Amino acid sequence: MMDRYSQLGTASALAAWRDAGLPVDAAGDQRDGGVSWGTSLGGTQTFEDGYRNIYLQRPPGRISPLGVIMGMNNACASHIAMQLGLAGPCHTFSVACSSSTVAIGEGFRRVRSGECSVVVAGGSDATLSYGVLRAWQAMRVLADGNEETAAHACRPFHRQRQGLVLGEGGGAFILEDWDRAVARGARIYAELASFGATCDHSHLVRPNLDGQVRAMRIALADADLAPAQIGYVNAHGTATREGDPIEIAAIREVFGDHAEALPVSATKSMHGHMLGATGVIESIATILSLYHQAIPPTAHLDDIDPACAGVRHVVGGPLRDVPLEAALCNSFAFGGSNAVLAFRRQRQP
Amino acid sequence: MSETDTLALLREFLKKHSDQDSALVTLESPLSSVNIDSLMLLELIFEFEEKFGISVPNDFPTPDTVGELVGAVDALRARNTGAAN
């Protein structure tokens, strides 16, 4: 009995847990195991079904008695805790497009402080309800597409970019105390090194250079990383007219002389914008870059907007065999909430 | 169907949605000076679409002044009338 967003999230959490080599034990009672989840819209499809039943049906239809518990924004996190027997803090963060990035960052802090030895962190969203789509369309930030152009509709940093493409998804990290992970011989994809969070406090949708710069600088400082040590930035890059140039300007400000040589890509060009799930999917792309020493491109970027120039855009195909030691993943939400994660290449003994 | 209708609707909108003294709004006023930012503009375009039965295309160029906005909306209204005839 789950909304689609919970199905996507729980499936991703179980997959990550198994991939980490941990036993699935719903009867367990792990007191220092937590869940830190992100969602922007939660059970929006459940609510839409309810509205349809009562407003459009004549006579009005019934509302499912499970509507409340399917629709609530923390349902997914609790399903994950129940499936995995996690008895510690179980929290949900709703920070628009930064939701799962914030959830990972806050989960990271619980592990680093010693409060939790393991946290399932990530996010999920099922955005494709009719009302949600129409609202985004009314805001005029969705890319147009027809049968021919839909596959390359989302073109971050492109001169002709039109906006974003909404998607649905879920993704999860298993954040584990380093010594515990090493002791049990876990496969470690990367070290989560820091989390930087700021608010623009200026406008609900117009991004602010200073807020983004501060978030990246906090992440670098907290991880004790110099700008030149960063070998890749997974950009927020939604392909809106206004957002992309500001992010590139912020990256140039933070990285200075290093920016020109710094590989940057926006993987939203391939997976779309999954709102609350997008930060974790992009973080997965970032840690797999470190793990495989290969950087994914911004797809469809065959004409870089001069307003977005000044970094090393990864175009055409992936960069392979790059000596990559550390990377950033940016999420900049409506509401002005900026979240940046820094990852280091794993140094497993 | 005159330019005045469009400007009047804009003034009415500002009265409802901001503290802006709508009497001070002229065709020369920059939109930013009368409290119309990108979000307000979306809402205002929505209002024009509702009231005038027009459809503002996605590639509608972002106007800088009240006059540019009113002119662009009037052009769409005129096109609509032409189509109806």
List the helices and strands and how they pair.
The complex is a heterodimer of chains A (349) and B (85).
Chain A lengths: L3 H16 L13 E6 L5 H13 L10 H5 L3 H10 L5 E4 L5 H14 L5 E8 L4 H9 L30 E8 L1 H6 L6 E10 L9 H14 L7 E5 L8 H13 L7 E3 L2 H4 L6 H15 L1 E2 L16 E2 L5 E2 L5 E7 L4 E9 L4
Parallel strand pairs in A: 1-2, 1-3, 6-7, 6-11, 7-9
Antiparallel strand pairs in A: 3-4, 5-12, 8-10, 11-12
Helix pairs in contact in A: 1-4, 5-11, 8-9
Chain B lengths: L2 H15 L20 H15 L13 H19 L1
Tell me about this structure.
Chain A is of the alpha/beta class and 349 residues long. In chain A, strands 5-12-11-6-7-9 form a six-stranded mixed sheet. In chain A, α1 packs parallel to α4, α5 crosses α11 and α8 packs across α9. Chain A contains eleven helices and twelve strands. Helix content of chain A is 34%, strand content 19%. Chain A folds into two domains: 180 residues, Thiolase/Chalcone synthase (Peroxisomal Thiolase, Chain A, domain 1, 3-Layer(aba) Sandwich); 156 residues, Thiolase/Chalcone synthase (Peroxisomal Thiolase, Chain A, domain 1, 3-Layer(aba) Sandwich), CATH 3.40.47. With 85 residues, chain B is mainly alpha-helical. Chain B has one domain: ACP-like (Non-ribosomal Peptide Synthetase Peptidyl Carrier Protein, Chain A, Orthogonal Bundle). The longest helix of chain B has 19 residues. Chain B starts with a helix and ends with a helix. Chains A and B meet through loops of A and α2 of B.
